[in-house]
Amino acid sequence: MPAQIIMVHDDHTILDPLGDALRAGGHDVVAFDQSIAAWDALSLDCKFDLLITRVRFPVGPHGLALARRAHMNRKEIQVLFVAAPEMERFTDGLGVLVPMPTHPSNISETVASMLGVALSAVIWRLQAYLLRWQQHNMAE
Questions:
Q1: pTM over 0.70
Q2: pLDDT tens per residue across span 67-109
Q3: Which residues are paired to 52 by β-bridges?
Q4: Per the CB 3.0–4.6 Å rule, which of 27, 90, 99, 130 could disulfide with 85?
Q5: Sheet holding 28-32, edge to edge
C-alpha cells in the first residue's frame, strides 16, 4: 500500500532524487523546498504517513518544529530526519535520523522499514542469491 509522504529539504540535489526514488517505490510524495510551505501542509487535516525533513533550515521553522506539528495533528505519523550525524542529539526522540551524506536508496530502504513495506527487489535478490548458494553447495 503506498504511503503518503511529505518531504522538506532545501537542497534539490537531495530532494529531487529522493522524491523520484520514493515515487518509483509506489509512494505518493509531496515535496517542499521551504519549511514554511510545509508548515501549512501539516495542518489539522494532515493525511501523511511519513515526514522526511532535515533538522535545521536557514529560514523558517526547523525540522523539529515540523515534526512536533506533525505529531500534534496526526499521532501515528513517522518522522525521518535526513541530516549530519551530529544532529541526532537534537531530534529529541521525535524520529529516526539517516546520516548524510547518503545515497537515496539508503533512505528509501529506511522508509520501507519504517512503514513496514516489503522490499520486493531486495527480497528477490536475496532469494536469487540463496538459490545460487544452495545450487553451489549441492554441486559439491
A1: yes
A2: 999 999 888 899 999 888 888 888 878 888 888 877 766 777 7
A3: 7, 80
A4: 99
A5: 28-32, 4-8, 50-53, 78-83, 96-99
Whether the CA torsion 59, 88, 93, 16 is positive or negative: it is positive
Contact call for residues 55 and 63 (beta carbons, < 8 A): yes
Q: Tell me the CATH architecture of domain 4-139.
A: 3-Layer(aba) Sandwich (3.40)
Angle, alpha carbons 77-48-105 (nearest 5°): 85
Cα–Cα distances in Å, from 24 out to 44, 56, 70, 101? 28, 27, 25, 21
- For 80, list phi and psi in degrees, rounded to 5: -120, 115
